[in-house]
Specification:
This protein has two helices and five strands. With 111 residues, the chain is α+β, with helices and mostly antiparallel strands. A five-stranded mixed sheet has the order 1-2-3-4-5, covered by helices on one side.
């Protein structure tokens, strides 16, 4: 199995794991969005907390040029570390939510 196929599988596993989490407030669903044709993956929270609408991105990941680009990470532990636990080298993970000039200091890939 090539590495991009393996990365897709890891991301799909994380999507399935996280979609079973439930916030401790309101009536909120977690939606997993997966586009493996274009390599875009998102985890969203959707619902209501009383009269307040809840709609937001928990995390957003793309695969570009053989690397995992984390566009947004709203998790406490950091989705990048969950990928590293599965065997993805830090050199194949870009923390895209950091400005390009700051990425060199993250310990992960710059691009």
């Amino acid at each position: 199995m090539d590495k991009v196929t393996q990365y897709r599988q890891y991301i799909q596993e994380l999507l399935q794991e996280y979609r079973h989490y439930r916030p401790s407030y309101g009536h909120v669903e977690i939606e997993a969005i997966s586009d493996s044709t274009h390599d875009h993956y998102q985890l969203l929270s959707v619902g209501w907390n009383g009269y307040e609408r809840i709609h937001g991105c928990l995390w957003h990941i793309d695969i570009k040029n053989g690397k995992i680009w984390i566009q947004h990470d709203g998790t406490e532990e950091g989705i990048a570390y969950r990928l590293v636990e599965r065997g993805v080298p830090k050199t194949d993970i870009v923390l895209a939510f950091h400005a390009p000039f700051r990425r060199q200091f993250t310990g992960f890939a710059s691009e």
